[in-house]
Amino acid sequence: MSAMLELDAISAGYGETEILHGIDLHVERGEIVVIIGPNGAGKTTAMKAIFGLLNITAGAIRLAGEEITNTPPQQVVTRGVAFVPQSANVFVSLTVEENLEMGAYVSRDDPAPRIEEIFELFPPLREKRRQAAGLLSGGQRQMVAMGKALMLHPKILLLDEPTAGLSPKYRSEIFRIVQDINAAGATILMVEQNAKQALMVAHRGYVLVDGENRHSGTGRALLDDDEVARMFLGASGGASGKNDGNGGRPA
Amino acid sequence: MMAFLNFYLIPGVVLGCIYALGAIGISLTFGILRFSNFAHGDTMTLGVYITLSLVQFSGLHPLLVAPLAMVLTTGIVLGLDRTFYKPFRTSPAIMLVIASFGLMLMIRSVIQFFWGVQLQALQTGIQMPLEALLPVRFSENHLLIIGATVLLMMAVHLVLTRTKIGKAMRATSDNPELAALTGIDTEVVIRATWAMGASLAVAAGVFLGLDTHVETMMGFKLLLPMFAAAILGGIGKPYGAVAGGLVIGIAEELSAYPWIGTTPLLSPGYKGGVAFAIMVAMLIWKPQGLFRGRQF
Amino acid sequence: MEQYYGYFLYLLSLLTMGGIYAVLTLGLNVQWGFTGLFNAGIAGFFAVGAYVQAILTTPIYARHLGGYEWPIPLAMLAAMALSAVVGYGVAKICIRLRADYLAIATIGIAEIIRLVFKNEGWATNGPRGISQIPKAFEDLPQPWNTLAFVAMVLAIVMVIYLALERARTAPWGRVMTAIRENEAAAAAAGKNVERFRLESFVIGSALMGLGGALMAQYLKQIDPQVSDPLTATFLVFVMLIAGGSANNKGAILGAMLMWTVWSATEILTSRLPDEFAIRSAYVRIFLIGLILQFILQRRPQGILPERRPKPHPRLRGDRAPAANTGSTKQ
Ligand SMILES: Nc1ncnc2c1ncn2[C@@H]1O[C@H](COP(=O)(O)OP(=O)(O)O)[C@@H](O)[C@H]1O
Ligand SMILES: [Mg+2]
């Protein structure tokens, strides 16, 4: 069976400037896959390329075996991909409920039942349902953004640094939710700066540097890799000793 | 006191209603298509002339044929959008501004060509103040204008908050990139925006025509006050535009009231400058408008 | 022979009006072409120049301010100066605003200026306007007076052209280009962006004032409607965009060309039956609008595209060479 999402030697960029120089990546059904890499490596660019937001000059992107290279965003959404950008990812002047409703824009069904389900997943949002999303805390906004993306049961959810700028409490909360929605069947591709925590929840990970693949492997393997540890985990030597027992998943 | 009410405040509110309806379109276009539509005033004029022809053709009351004029004007505006604005969807906003600047004169010249430049009237006969309300001088038209404006505002509110397309319009105004990512069809949103803006402009123009007369520069003369109202209310904020319109309309009329002594505070010849002065003051001190609209 | 003489005079009038419009177009080129400042109130600055010229040079007349009888060249300088002062005031307030707002604000200014000239009858004779404005060289015999006036206008155009070309290739012009294209980078390179824009707006306004002063002389009379303010503004914009924004030769070419088109269509339409002739004036405006839309969509760089000076050394490395009228994608 084909991968849920597959990037095959993708080159893409903004205008004349090429940012991604032939990257390969695949996400299998039911996986959490994490992309880590230094600032400016092209992680966000890769997500935008999947979503049809910039011109792909070479390579192919396949969703469950079907090619979606250079498909416009609206059709990508219709085909079951949802993207939560890193910032400005909620409609600030719309209420929480309206934000969720917009998440189901391409569907003709009544969104109300699904909104209730989303509130089950993110209980703090229920009592704020009539509040403008712009008035919520950072963590709650992130919940709205993710809830909005989950409205149509996407085949795959793309998250760009979902924990950036959040307090440690919310950060763990978001990672827990990511695992929950994954357990409920969603496939997830996520970019993360909090590499250690991310690799602990991930099945597999990729390291992207300067628009090229640098490493890839299971979350555990990357955590144990010396170079990865040096570059991203801020630790001298592997982080392997500390990641036992908690949320880390068996590969 | 009665004079103040009858000759300044009531006309100010009526004018404010007209500005408010016009300004909603400016504000929406700015929020969703992201440019200042200079052709908005002349779109209004076009709608009024269409109404005029429908009145002459059918003999019905202008307000009865106005809905049809709204539909026709919307159709024309959608055609103009396709031809003159759509090619610039991803261009810098100034291209659209120039295109609308050109369109403003093109629409006007078409109107002048077909209907001529002489003053015309939507209604014959003189409006008398309603007996029952004296000494407050309210003409039937004033009541109709204010009542219809309130109804239209309520309709706008319901569309924007209760319908899917209305919410999508607000979402797109809020964050167009995210709207595209969410799967919102921006072209549909844009069409809805034109339809709403043009319909309200036609309504505003017909009200103005009922209150005064019909002439080919009427829309252009409203352009500045409408912009001022939209800026005052915070660009991209339709409710702000309504408040802004009322403020500007009332301020314009009150500027000629003899506040000090017996002569008008401001010579009526400069009434048209009031909106501009308010607008410039806002741009300097509070460019985000009274209701925290988008700031540039 | 008679007939050729008529053509000759017509040609001179084309050159004169084209030249006056070229002055306006060059002024707009400084603002819009070089700096990206959208001035939709050209008619206002133009009117300031025209009225200053009229008031300072006309003989005494009971119905308006006057009787100063200044020499014509001095009055022209004063016209430029006052227009520049108005431009300074506008720029001081509006220059930081995004292009749309500047457009609205300048349209508003032009409208206010028109109101002032219309309402302050003691100074301007209100809607009736000012007539008998002295014109340079008018004491010479025909056709030398006309020829001399054309020569003066064209010489002024030439001088402005040379000066602006100097400015364009000088550091000042290069900074201007940099600001238009990447304001952030220019500011980061330590350029006082606001001051440069202000200078550019003031220079442009002064030139528009000069255009007004020339027009007042040429027509010998002005009123608050000095050739329908919006049409004038619009025409100048079309001239610049057609000729080529940010290209001084283009600005002049556009002015001459579009004026010829404008004037030729007038001749054509004036031969039509009366009822139709009046209305066909509107067809002309419509056609000019259509030309504008066509150029915008098909050839936004105009007939003569911008020739860019070498980038300013300290600003090199900017991305995306994109003219302000070009089809930049975000
Ligand atoms: N809109 C854009 N236009 C041009 N270049 C961009 C744009 N966005 C990002 N870049 C460039 O692309 C490169 C990769 O950026 P990005 O994908 O955002 O990195 P990351 O998400 O890994 O931090 C950077 O060098 C950045 O400067
Ligand atoms: Mg990023």
What would your notes on this structure say?
The complex is a heterotrimer of chains A (251), B (296) and C (330). With 251 residues, chain A is of the alpha/beta class. Chain A is built from ten helices and ten strands. In chain A, the strands form two sheets. In chain A, strands 6-7-8-3-9-10 form a six-stranded mixed beta sheet, sandwiched between helices. The longest helix of chain A has 16 residues. Chain A is globular and about 45 Å long. Chain A starts with a strand and ends in a 19-residue tail after the last helix. The C terminus of chain A is likely disordered. Chain B has one domain: ABC transporter involved in vitamin B12 uptake, BtuC (Orthogonal Bundle), CATH 1.10.3470. Chain B has eleven helices and no strands. Chain C has a domain of 216 residues. Helix content of chain C is 70%, strand content 0%. The relative contact order of chain C is 0.17. Chains in contact: A-B, A-C, B-C. Chains A and C meet through loops of A and loops of C. The structure holds adenosine-5'-diphosphate and magnesium ion. The site of magnesium ion has 3 residues of chain A, from α1.
User: In angstroms, what is the radius of gyration of chain B?
Assistant: 19 Å
Our estimate of the beta-strand percent of chain A is 25-35%
Report the biggest beta sheet of chain B as strand number plus sense, adding barrel if it closes: none
Distance between the termini of chain A: 20 Å
User: Which ligands are bound?
Assistant: adenosine-5'-diphosphate, magnesium ion
* Number of helical stretches of at least 4 residues of chain A: 10
General shape of chain A: globular
Summary tags:
heterotrimer, A: about 250 residues, alpha/beta, four-stranded antiparallel beta sheet, about 35% helix, B: about 300 residues, mainly alpha, ABC transporter involved in vitamin B12 uptake, BtuC, 11 helices, globular, binds adenosine-5'-diphosphate
Provide a concise account of the structure shown:
With 251 residues, chain A is of the alpha/beta class. Chain A contains 10 helices and 10 strands. Chain B has 11 helices and no strands.
Fold topology:
The complex is a heterotrimer of chains A (251), B (296) and C (330).
Chain A: E1 5-14, E2 17-27, E3 32-36, H1 43-50, E4 56-63, E5 66-67, H2 73-78, E6 81-84, H3 96-103, H4 112-121, H5 123-126, H6 138-150, E7 156-160, H7 168-183, E8 187-191, H8 195-201, E9 204-209, E10 212-218, H9 219-224, H10 226-232
Chain B: H1 2-32, H2 40-58, H3 62-85, H4 93-115, H5 140-162, H6 164-174, H7 176-182, H8 186-211, H9 218-233, H10 238-254, H11 271-285
Chain C: H1 2-34, H2 42-57, H3 72-94, H4 99-119, H5 121-124, H6 144-169, H7 171-181, H8 183-188, H9 193-219, H10 229-243, H11 248-270, H12 274-298
Adenosine-5'-diphosphate binds next to strand 2 and helix 1 of chain A.
